[in-house]
Prior knowledge:
Layout: H1 3-9, H2 14-37, H3 42-68
Amino acid sequence: MKRNDITALHTMTAAELQTKLSTLQQELATARLGHRVGKASVTTIARVRDDIARIKTVLREQQLAKKVA
């Protein structure tokens, strides 16, 4: 995920982030299966896991911002 994409995550709503999160989780499952067959690389899996972590972080930041406000 590029820097522009990361900053775009902060402007997305929680519903949009949840949708993107579920899509990435499906992509991760597919990549893991592909790795076992030999079609996907470890770097692909790592990239998807990192993207999932970024989205979860933004969701958590939004939750905490709502509690404070």
